[in-house]
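Sequence in, structure out. Go.
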Amino acid sequence: MELNNTSLSEKAQQDIVLVEKAKAGDQQAYGQLLGKYRDAIYFMLLKMVNNPIDAEDLTIEAFGKAFKNLNQYTPNFAFSTWLFKIASNNCIDHIRKQRGSTISLDQSMDGEDSLSPSSMIQSDSPDPEASMINEQKIKMMRDVVTRLKPRYRSLIELRYFKEYSYEEISDYLELPLGTVKAQLFRARELLNNILKNTDAQS
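Output:
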């Protein structure tokens, strides 16, 4: 591919080449883009949320959104600019949701945090009705997870039910860390789609 936008830096033009390869289905190109910007995105988000676990999950979520919408990126400006904007906007939405409610019983299943059973209820006082609703949500989540393909099901179970770190999952499944994160993008996307369909039918 020829690059006509000479106003972009050499690094930005190299990114455009990687983006085009990724659009064509080159998994290595996705990995290279992830590797180039993962740390920078993570540290930016860490400053915003001041929580390493949230920052790590938001980093993965940002790349997931960027890769899912890669066709919307146009090389009129640097890929990194577009990526950082997605990450910061997503983080702002996350912060607003966190401030908006301390109990996530009615929270949309679209959010990263809502996938974790331990985060579904954040009330300090025990409430029998809330506990029952929470148990039903966890049961529904487990039922939905069983519909995923085995490799995706394993990733979701390890990450959200057993609460393994990305590194622990990598060791346990004997997969490269980048592969674990990339497949978790896809697993979460599939899970959210199933949840949306379930909500629509209920």
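Check: The first helix runs from residue 10 to 23. The radius of gyration is 18 Å.
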